Hints:
Largest sheet: 8 strands, mixed
Strand content: 15-25%
Number of domains: 1
Oligomer: single chain
CATH topology: Rossmann fold
Helix content: 25-40%
Strand order of the largest sheet: 3-2-1-4-5-6-7-8
Amino acid sequence: MSHFSDDELDRYARHIVLPQVGGIGQRKLKAAKVVVIGAGGIGSAAIPAFAGAGIGMLTIVDDGEVERSNLQRQTIFRDDQLGRPKAPLAAEFARSLNPTVQAIGVAQRLDDSNVDGLIGGEDLILDGSDNFATRLAVSDAATRLHIPLVSAAAVQFQGQVGLFRGWEENKPCYRCFVGDAFDNDDCDTCAEQGVLGALAATVGSFGALMAIRSIAGIGEDVAGSLYLFDGLALDWRKMRLPKNPGCKGCS
């Protein structure tokens, strides 16, 4: 435990006492660099979970500003922050929750031209963005740079979360799952279809749990599995995703 201050030993006591985590797992979390794409409803659940868990370096990428319609699900923001950029506010929230975490906000829109610079060198990506063009740019870069990707999405009452390491043999990437049709199409976002706030939080928390398990080496490896949540039926379903031999992202 010599790597932890007294503050950290207090802060992470409930983790360290878990045999599956312990001091070794907590050190892995402290050493980890994680980037969260999107400070929306999913990010608003994942960012506090990462900060609380003691992820050492947290980067949050979002080019949006706080709108009143966000606050029904984006609970890291406040009504008196309307009109301000989300990314620096989210980083400020993470640091206020846990001052031992280095958190930075990047108020940029991620695309093919800047994605490598934004995610290169990270240990894990959690993508909670709201459009397929961003998601596919992130997936292709994650596969190219060999960075594990947790992809989490929520719309209406439906959620889906998966862990992808598409550079590995027999492991699909996110593009294997959705195909190429959405590269330049923002499709249906929450603004058009709606989303229950607590559903987005459920999916974001589940994505953070999946990421923390991966970083700390807890439990079985679930890369290549997709978890589907039906918020009306209150039912989780797990499915194995095949690798697409013709995928332009990973094959």
